[in-house]
Write a structure and sequence with these properties.
This protein is of the alpha/beta class and 375 residues long. 39% of the residues lie in helices and 22% in strands. It has 13 helices and twelve strands.
Length: 375
Amino acid sequence: MSKSFYSLGLMSGTSMDGVDVSIINSDGSAKFKGILNKYFEYSEDLHKNLISSRDKINSSKDLKVHSKELDFLQKEITLFHSKAVNEVVKEIDFNIDIIGFHGQTIFHNAGERISRQLGDGNLLSQLVKKKVVYDFRQNDLKNGGQGAPLAPIFHKIISKEIKIDPPLCILNLGGIANITAIESDEDLTLVSCDIGPGNCLIDEWVRKNAGKKYDKDGLIAKLGKINAAILNQALDNNESLITKNILSYDAKDFDLNFVRGLSLEDGAATITEFTGSVLGEGILNFFKKLGNKPKKILVCGGGRKNLTLIQSIKEKLVEKSTIENIDKYGLDGDFIESQAFAYLAIRSFLKLPISFPKTTGCKEPSTGGVLVQNF
């Protein structure tokens, strides 16, 4: 009988607003049980500093130019994560075997094979006195992959947990949207890719124009009017980016320039419809690769709560699929990614693959992550 591990996953997404913490019990293969989920919000200063730093990093050269600032931020982020871990550990009566530390993505460029997450695994291990796996993406990049998406192997195990037979798709609406197709029980049949912006453009618009972190329930967009001329021009301008064979995007692959001058509400409405159009087209293109078979789509991530965005996506798909909230099946859609990195940490520890040719584009199934025990 394979050994089960208690693993704690840490995830901070492109919204840069805080850290999701999840504890799971799994053998890194067929067994999975969610134990605990908790969210820790960044301070206003840390949130602003992260956004400011990310805005300065537009190329790999900028990583060197701003290295001192990034080193300082990395320490701040690691200290924040350590406090979150220590607080959660107080709530449980069992030992955490391993921690999956994703870190805070500050720059991702699949073309250059560069992906930088802020987070010091050695320092975290020292502070929380646990084994830590971090830097999950580098090995995939070295093996010809694009470093993302990494959650598909976890998507497969939760499909078994909720007892939905393939074929099935899981759509993650984080800052960037990615989709996974689960066609069978075989890992090598997993197909996944990023399909465009998720919440990143909407969040940025609302942050800059309303001082809020996101458009709650899509209500700001619902109050606005879509500017059809601006929308169509933006879709035309981004067509080449959308149709490229790109498996992973960075938030900076898309920008807000096309809605400059619009009101808060009209800008939100136009951006949301732009996002929904790109994602709808991305899903349809994804389905073509799979033979256009109808799929059930389960949606997770913060964007699933944006009802205006979800409605926009549904309108583009018509009868191609059914879209349902993953929470309907007893899972918390806010914590799928943090659970995924808890699961990936176990697989990394066991030297099992976490990325596959049809998910990241790597040459062969690859494990990943750096294991440290600094205590």
